[in-house]
Amino acid sequence: MQAEVKWVDGFKFLGQSQSGHSIVMDGSGGATAPSPMEMVLMAAGGCSSVDVVDGLKEAGQQVTGCVAKLTTERRETAPRIFTHVNIHFEVSGINLDESAVEKVTADSLEKYCSVCLMLGKGVEMTHSWAIV
């Protein structure tokens, strides 16, 4: 996998993926586009959500919605890395089995989500869930 990031101007950068997609990032705190750290957070939410939806479908669950709400704690001084990330999954569906939801959300962070597993090497990663 490859990517390229080009400086546009100021603190604005254009990221281009190997698959041909582009995204603007704003290094000045996200004033005009997501900041790089926001992108990392959204990547964790997206990657883990894929695992949750796929895991529930594989378990025969009738999942109709999944929202991942991510909260973080960061160091006060540079480098301002995440020290804690929690992903709260709000899952909806028809007659969802709580044990299935509990299992797939835990498995995502502990076994399958590439982004979360990379972050977990230096960040406390936790999760919670609710059927809504």
UniProtKB/TrEMBL annotation:
<dbReference type="InterPro" id="IPR015946">
    <property type="entry name" value="KH_dom-like_a/b"/>
</dbReference>
<dbReference type="Pfam" id="PF02566">
    <property type="entry name" value="OsmC"/>
</dbReference>
<dbReference type="InterPro" id="IPR036102">
    <property type="entry name" value="OsmC/Ohrsf"/>
</dbReference>
<protein>
    <submittedName>
        <fullName>OsmC family protein</fullName>
    </submittedName>
</protein>
<dbReference type="InterPro" id="IPR003718">
    <property type="entry name" value="OsmC/Ohr_fam"/>
</dbReference>
